[in-house]
Amino acid sequence: MAVPETTETEEKGFSISEFLKETKVELKKVTWPTKQELIANTIVVIIAVCLCAGLIWIIDTIFSILFRMILQ
Fold it and tell me: How far apart are CA 14 and CA 7, in angstroms?
């Protein structure tokens, strides 16, 4: 039976301070969007959400009309 290898984290145990230090290091590596990219992406998301909501509303209305016709 194979014994799984232990990682460095398992050997030392969990340390919140070490986790926060590593998180800070990783966040420095992130490429953050510019203000213009953020605005453009936000507009795209809002438009996509509105289109999906409109499509669901149209389909819901059609099904509602169909069910009323069937049940009458």
Answer: 12
Reported residue count of the chain is: 72
Place of tokens 């990219």: 37
Per-residue pLDDT reduced to its tens digit, 13-57: 789 999 999 999 999 999 999 999 999 999 999 999 999 999 999
| Contact (Cβ atoms closer than 8 angstroms) between residue 33 and residue 41 | yes
Q: Does pTM top 0.85 for this prediction? A: no
- Integer Cα distance of 64 and 58 in angstroms: 10
C-alpha torsion angle, residues 42, 47, 52, 58 (rounded to 10): 150
Measured over the CA atoms of residue 57, residue 58, residue 61 and residue 66, the dihedral's sign is negative
Q: Name the token pair of 46.
A: 């809002």
